């Protein structure tokens, strides 16, 4: 995709500048939502429990405490939340060590944001140890700031991670474009007051005010993102 991109800070109307782009990680930039489910299935199988496929939509996109807590309660597994969290993170880290596919359009979008010096943050419900591993593939230089799920008092679906990212970049949340793949992440971004681009991965996301639905990051470039801010007039 090619685009003619306004310089950073260019305004098409008073107050319409794009100040920052805040990106989710799993299922948005890297094709790993399936990895988490596979690891959850394997861990619970080792504990003697079989996960119901319908639970996948319950745990997708949520913080580790919520998804792991739900699975413990649903299965009755004899394991603590802290013990399960370690097993899940270990299993996931092993998976991404073997392969870490990017979502279509992710590499091109990150390169474009970096080229035009758009302040960019990675905002994930995953723990810091996981984010740091993924950054070796995504390129840490693409992000001025990263926010992990275990570094904020409340993670997604609360607005805290996106408010922290906007503040860290010195941006007004209203002038930030957020790209997310789950309803949980969308809820967090919208609660923070951001303009949201939803790229559904595992479960569909309904259209709503201040929310734009696309099928792939290949549809998203800087002209597109600047346009979202212009439409807010």
Automatic annotation (TrEMBL):
Pfam family name, one: Hydrolase
Gene3D superfamilies (alphabetical): HAD superfamily/HAD-like, Putative phosphatase, domain 2
SUPFAM superfamilies: HAD-like
Residues spanning the membrane: none
Cited PANTHER family: 2-DEOXYGLUCOSE-6-PHOSPHATE PHOSPHATASE 2, PSEUDOURIDINE-5'-PHOSPHATASE
Protein's name according to its UniProt entry: Phosphorylated carbohydrates phosphatase
